[in-house]
Design the sequence.
């Protein structure tokens, strides 16, 4: 017990010394590794092109790794740039990977959202995920905000007077809420009387509604018949 | 109770003692966290069009052949209930009331027999189109609601340390200011030979930046700032960068720490 206390007291000193020791040791290890491997690290520093993945399986594996480390949906173009491969090849590889991955029915899905690819949990396990993260679903948008958002999503770029015309009611607080939540962005002014500000949806909108792009929104004309009964 | 009220076609509004059940919904007072206002929620009606759609459904009439007199009465009754309850009726509801009354009058007037045939457009058509249009977006809002609900059950991976600490993904305001100051300092040393003043406006500057970024997909901000020929232009150039970043049209990147800042079209 006594010796234990002693070591704890000395910890600040020990830590500095240990760190120094560790860095010396690491430096030695690096030097050794460079000698044995023929200094591979230097080679890659010399702008030696990164070798493209050899096989299809390797390519899929690399893509999987890249998507995993991205905090935002990763676009095919970015992957293609990193791997120095043709966009079509990558696009096909990602599709195949997604098909294979999603076929596993694991807790994760590989999905396309906001113009990129992303790993995400499957919605059916949300209760367990929430139990772990100790979160509750965040507040939903009000009907007024959702209606305003729907008009903006389908009619963008659209001005406040144009939204009023469709909804038949003023929506300043809804627009403010949507701007605060970064679901919509100002898209410049319309060259008409009063030069009203035009609004459109943002990338965050696509992400929060799980959309690949705007074209994934069902056509507004299709709602014509559905709405009658509701 | 409510169904009785609605099916009852005789106008006896004044006898009713402020029924608390208005068009199928119980009004209640709500507070909004974002403002200090108290709001009176009269059911789920988001506006006059929403209320009209509800009344049309309630009366089981066709949207293409609205019995204007009947619907107008129902609509006005609703507004009167609001007033009886001492609720300030929102302006948009009153505008619709005026429109309905005007329509009702038009429908009552005999048609002008001497008027040319093609001018006999149904006076209701404008309102009908407005209702049909609104109905679509109301359904679209429902679709968005269910999408958002599903999406809230989907979790992405948590942030890892390098997301924030990576100089490649973030350029701070001070980095931007530093580039700006460098260029400003260099500008001071140069002698301006130009005499005529071509004042460029903020809008033009924004347009220039947009064009320069769009044409190549990305733009070194140093190049953009160096095009400015006066202090004023430089300030405008700087402001326009801030503006496009604010509107998320472009994103700023740095290839290495202390390197040039590059504007890229936000995808």
Sequence:
């Amino acid at each position: 017990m006594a010796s234990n206390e002693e070591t704890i007291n000395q910890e600040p000193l020990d830590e500095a010394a240990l760190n120094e020791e560790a860095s010396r040791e690491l430096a030695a290890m690096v030097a050794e590794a460079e000698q044995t491997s023929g200094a591979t690290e230097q080679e890659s520093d010399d702008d030696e092109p990164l070798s493209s993945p050899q096989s299809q399986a390797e390519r899929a594996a690399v893509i999987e790794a890249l998507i995993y480390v991205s905090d935002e949906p990763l676009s095919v173009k970015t992957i293609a740039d990193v791997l120095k491969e043709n966009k079509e090849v990558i696009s096909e590889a990602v599709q195949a990977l997604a098909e294979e991955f999603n076929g596993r029915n694991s807790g994760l899905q590989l999905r396309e959202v906001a113009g990129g690819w992303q790993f995400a949990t499957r919605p059916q396990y949300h209760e367990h995920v929430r139990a772990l993260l100790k979160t509750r679903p965040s507040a939903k948008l009000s009907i007024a905000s959702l209606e305003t958002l729907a008009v903006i999503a389908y009619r963008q770029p659209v001005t406040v007077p144009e939204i009023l015309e469709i909804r038949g009611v003023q929506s300043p607080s809804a627009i403010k809420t949507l701007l605060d939540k970064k679901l919509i962005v100002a898209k410049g002014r319309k060259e008409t009387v009063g030069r009203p500000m035009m609004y459109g949806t943002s990338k965050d909108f696509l992400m929060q509604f799980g959309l690949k792009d705007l074209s994934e929104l069902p056509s507004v004309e299709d709602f014509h018949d559905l709405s009658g009964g509701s | 109770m409510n169904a009785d009220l609605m099916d009852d076609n005789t106008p006896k509004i004044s006898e009713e003692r402020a029924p608390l059940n208005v068009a199928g919904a119980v009004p209640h007072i709500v507070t909004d966290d974002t403002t200090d206002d108290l709001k009176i929620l009269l059911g789920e009606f988001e506006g006059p069009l929403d209320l009209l759609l509800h009344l049309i459904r309630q009366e089981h009439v066709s949207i293409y052949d609205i019995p204007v007199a009947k619907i107008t009465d129902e609509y006005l009754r609703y507004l009167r209930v609001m007033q009886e309850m001492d609720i300030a009726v929102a302006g948009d509801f009153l505008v619709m009331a005026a429109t309905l009354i005007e329509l009702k009058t038009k429908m009552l007037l005999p048609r002008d027999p001497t008027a040319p045939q093609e001018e006999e457009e149904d006076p209701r058509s404008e309102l009908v189109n407005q209702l049909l249009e609104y109905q679509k977006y109301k359904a679209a809002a429902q679709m968005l609601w269910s999408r958002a609900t599903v999406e809230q059950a989907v979790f992405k991976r948590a942030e890892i340390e390098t997301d924030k600490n990576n100089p490649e993904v973030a350029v701070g305001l001070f980095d931007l200011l530093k580039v700006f100051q460098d260029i400003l300092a260099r500008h001071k040393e140069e002698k301006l030979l130009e005499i005529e003043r071509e004042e460029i406006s903020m809008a033009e500057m924004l347009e220039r930046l947009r064009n320069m970024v769009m044409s190549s997909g990305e733009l070194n901000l140093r190049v953009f700032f160096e095009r400015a020929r006066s202090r004023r232009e430089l300030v405008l150039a700087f402001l326009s960068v801030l503006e496009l970043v604010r509107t998320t049209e472009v994103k700023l990147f740095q290839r290495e720490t202390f390197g040039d800042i590059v504007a890229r079209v936000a995808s």
Q: What stands out?
A: Strands of chain B lie at 28-31, 38-41, 218-220, 250-254, 261-265. Chain B has two domains: 2-109+122-140, 164-265.
